[in-house]
Amino acid sequence: MSSSIKLLSGDFGHVINGKLDTAPNAKRLDVNNPATGEHLASVPICDRATLDKAVEAAAAAFPAWRDKSWAERAEAVKKWGEHYQSSIPDLIPLLTAEQGKALGISHYEANAVTEWFQAMPTMELKETTVLDDEKMKAITRYTPLGVCAGIVPWNFPILLMVWKIIPAVLTGNTIIIKPSPFTPLCDIRIVEAAQQFFPPGVVQVVVGDDSLGPWITEHEGIRKVSFTGSSATGRLVAKSCSATLKRFTLELGGKDPCVVMADVDFEKAIPQIFMAATLNSGQTCVCAKRIYVHDSIYEKFSQALAGAFQNGAVVGDPLKEGVLIGPINNKMQHKKVSEFFDDVKSKGYKTFAGGDITSSGDGLFATPTLVDNPPDDSKIAVEEPFGPIVPLFRYKDEAELLKRINSSEYGLGASVWSTDLEKAGAFARKIDSGIVWVNSSPVLHPRVPFGGCKSSGIGCENGDQGLQGWCQLHSICVAK
Fold it and tell me: Where do the Aldehyde dehydrogenase domain residues begin and end (predicted)?
C-alpha cells in the first residue's frame, strides 16, 4: 500500500533554516500504519545540538520577519495556503496511513485547514487608543514574542499544526514544530513545502522521541510553547516553562458532556451525536464522552443511538470505502482504551452496542461501544478513554444534572440538544467548559476562540484572543 502514496517518496527529516535535514547519522524512529502494522518510513531523532541549531536559525530570522508589515506576512500565509490546497489529494492517503483515520475523516481534516489560511490573514491585531484626554494619549499594541514552539499531537496532526503556525507567523514570530513521533510524516511534508514562501528559519520542524518535548519547554531561547495533548503532560509542560518564564498555551484533555433534553429532535440529533461520539475513532478532544439523556426518553433514545452505532460504525481498514472507524493510533493508546473495556466487563455494566475492544484483523481496532447508565464514580464516567467507548446516563432534574456535569475535573467542550433554544442556551451558560455547542456536534472556526478550563487547559487558540496569545501587550503613553 505504501508504494501507492505519493508523498512517501523521498527522505523524511527535520526542516531547519530552510532546508530538509535527513540527518543520516542520527538514530531513527519508525513510523508504522496502525491498521496493518506496515512500516511506512523512518525519521531521524533530534538531539540537543540539532534543536539548538533550529533555535539559532529561528532567532536569526526573527528580527527581519518581525519588522515586516502584517500585510506582507499575510501575503506569505495566503500563498502557502494556495500551495497547501493543491497538495490535499496527496496528503489525504498519507494522513490515513500514518494516523489510521478513515479516508472521509482525513478528507475533512485536510480540507478544514483551508479556512484558517483564508480567514486568519484578515484578522489583523491593530493598535487601540485606550486613553486620550487633555494630559495624555495612550495606545496599546501587540508585539511578537520571538522564537516559539508548537508541540503537536497524533490525533489531528495537520489541523493542530496549522492552528499553531499561522497565528504565530502572522503576529511576527518564528516557530519550531515538534510533531508526534507517531504521526510526523504529513507535518514534515507540509513544512518542507512552506519553505518556498517564508524566509529560512521562520517555520521549521524537528522530529524526536520523548526527550525532545522537555528540551523544548526548558530551552532558554524559546519564548512560548503551544502544547496540545494530555492533561498529565500539560502539567509537566507548564512546570518546565515556568523555569524560564516562557509563555504557554495548553489545550488538554476533556470529558465532554452531551445533554439530551426531553424535547430533542431525534432525527437531527441522533446522526450528529453519533458522529460526535465516534469521530476519529473517539480520538478527539471534543468528542461527546458522556451523554446525559432525560429519563422520559432514555429508553427510546438509547435504542436509536445504539442503532446508529450498530449500523453506521463500520470498523476496518480506513483506506476502504464505507469504513468510518479506523484503528486506535498506537499500541500505548490501544492498551489504555482496552483498560476501559476490561473495566466495563469486570463490573458487569450493560452495553447497548459493542462491548469488545478488538473488532477484526491484526490492527489496533476497537468496536464502538455504548455503556448503559454506569455509576457516576465509575472509570468510564470519570476518566477520558480517548477511544470509541461512551457512557449514557439518565437524568431527571436539571439542577442536579448541572452538579453532575460540573463535578468533572475537565472543562473543554460540551453540547446541549433541545428544540427550546432559550432553555438550551440558558443551560449552556451554566456549564463549566471553554465552548458549548447548542444543537450541533463540534464545529470549529478560525474566529471562534477554542480552549478549556480546569484540567482542560490554559489560554486558547483561534479568534482574536488566540492571536493575542502569541504576543506581548505593549502600551505607549505620550504626554501632551
Answer: 25-475
